Amino acid sequence: MSTLIQFFGRVLAGVILAATVVAAGAAGERIELTDTEKAWIKENPVVKFGYDPGWGPFSYRDARGEFTGIDADYLKLIGQRLGLTFKPVHSLSWPEAYEAARKGEAHFLVSTAEDEERGRDFVFTGAYNSFPMAFVTRHDAPAVMSLNDLSGKRVAGVQGYVEVAVLAREHPDIQRVMVESMDEAFLAVASGRADVAATNIANANYIIKSLGLSNLKIAGVMPYLFDLRYAVRKDQPVLRDLLDKGVASLSAKDRQDIVGPWVGVEYVRIVRWDYVMRWVAGGVVVAGVFFGFMAWRNRLLSRELAERTRIQTELETARRRLEELNEEKTGLMRMAAHDLRNPLNGLMLNVEILSEGAAPKDREALDRIMVLSHQMIHMIRNLLDVQALEDGRRRLKIEAVDVPGEVEDVLAAMQTLAERKRITLTTQFARTAPRALADRAALRQVLNNLVGNAVKYSPYDREVTVDVEPATDGKLVLRVRDQGPGIMADEMPRLFQKYVCLSARPTGGEQSTGLGLAIVKQLVTAMDGAVWCESKPGEGAVFIVELPAVVAGEATG
């Protein structure tokens, strides 16, 4: 449910940005510097920084031992604007990184929360990241709705982290379980050595995913934020001023572009309804911009208010049921998807009306709104499809299907999308290719997802090929081949899982919800077929679908 809410929130923010046509802080923009700052940069062209190696997705070392994460992306952009080169000083833990910077081995630290003790050694820039605190428990534990719920609990935390110091200072009745890293804190909760782990919500979601701790959940989110800043050594005041200018130059779009691909928070068994209502209210604001001139606006808003009150009551009831029955979560997701589809269709209709008489300078913003609205509709359809398949409500009608004909229809529908990126769609059919035993609508949905993904992840001026050929043992084989970045070997096991976004990114700014391939897998399996992928990084990917073929003389129906 929260993945859906977060996606809609991100897209609604994009709608507002497009409607107001605001663009600030473009990458590559230079920052106005004083003579003192220019001289400092000339004397210090390479600036060293320390980081917590276990603080994903903000800062960590990847499989090649290289510094990566949200902080790496921020420093790359700020370095371009300041004309500085930032070099990481690797360490094995946060206390080691902190001590190294304090001794002068690094100029500054990234992702540091400001407090009185740290102020003895460092000066701090303005905040460039802000995230709420989250509490993580095992699945069988109750929700954490306030800090009072932690009374007498064993809370795991890392020595030197501000979260631990705040909890210890404000709630001395909490039992602290000190560990070496956040990974160890989550493992302590998973194994029962601790009851709760406290960290910011982005870090919590990252660790649960990366460690595959399926028995943990985000049980509560507090309403106050932890601001993350750069901590600069006190003997480097000019560097602090330079970094502050870099932080100040970051626009809302810069932050969204950097943080968005890394952060996708998933809640388990608990929903913060105050956050749900904020996103719903935001949707009403966007709708009001376009419908405000209509005479019946007040009546419509009154009806929506009454409906929203009814929905809120139902959601509160559902929240209590979620604590007892985890499967109720799917029902709430389906309801939210249905309720959002109607206002979105109305929004798209009115955008079309506005576009007819819009000036050329306004039409680009309206086109962007239409694209974002289509993305939201696509997300809703995918969610409903997933739920229908999992609930067994979708019934397939297996019949003899002309696969080449279906391929040609899908490629014709995809032609406009491919032309935007100058991608050529080609086909190759075996003369002896038999018909497949499949559900016609399901097969077309599989083709739409696979061809759409191939176009989405292929660079401009490339080719996407769809082959249909017979195989042995009464199987028909369908191959969708692209010339994109390919898929890493260690990511293959997660390829067809729900809500999974791999390291490859769409090449034209398209959105990826992580549901398309999961739907493909479920539909192909339901048709008694198989689907898999063959790929080498940098050499594109080939998705292969194997379906039962119609044997000559076999009756179907």
Detailed description of the structure:
The protein is 45% helix and 20% strand. The protein has 557 residues and is α/β, with parallel strands linked by helices. It folds into 4 domains: 129 residues, D-Maltodextrin-Binding Protein, domain 2; 99 residues, D-Maltodextrin-Binding Protein, domain 2 (3-Layer(aba) Sandwich), CATH 3.40.190.10; 119 residues, no CATH class; 150 residues, Heat Shock Protein 90, CATH 3.30.565. Strands 1, 5, 6, 7, 8, 9, 10, 11 and 12 form a 9-stranded mixed sheet that branches. A 5-stranded mixed sheet has the order 14-16-17-19-18. A hairpin with a 3-residue loop joins strand 2 and strand 3. Helix 13 runs parallel beside helix 16. It is globular. The relative contact order is 0.09.
CATH C-level name of the largest domain = Alpha Beta
Structure class: alpha/beta
Compute the CA-based radius of gyration.
26 Å
Number of domains: 4
Helical segment tally? 16
Spans with pLDDT under 50 lasting ≥5 residues? 1-28, 265-276
Question: Averaged pLDDT, please?
Answer: 77
Q: Outline the biggest β-sheet.
A: 9 strands, mixed
Q: Write down how many β-strands occur, each being a DSSP E stretch of 2 or more residues.
A: 19
- CATH homologous superfamily label of the largest domain: Histidine kinase-like ATPase, C-terminal domain
* Percentage of β-strand residues: 15-25%
**How would you sum up the global shape?**
globular
CATH architecture heading of the largest domain: 2-Layer Sandwich
Helix content: 40-55%
- CATH topology-level name of the largest domain: Heat Shock Protein 90
* Cα distance spanning the termini: 39 Å
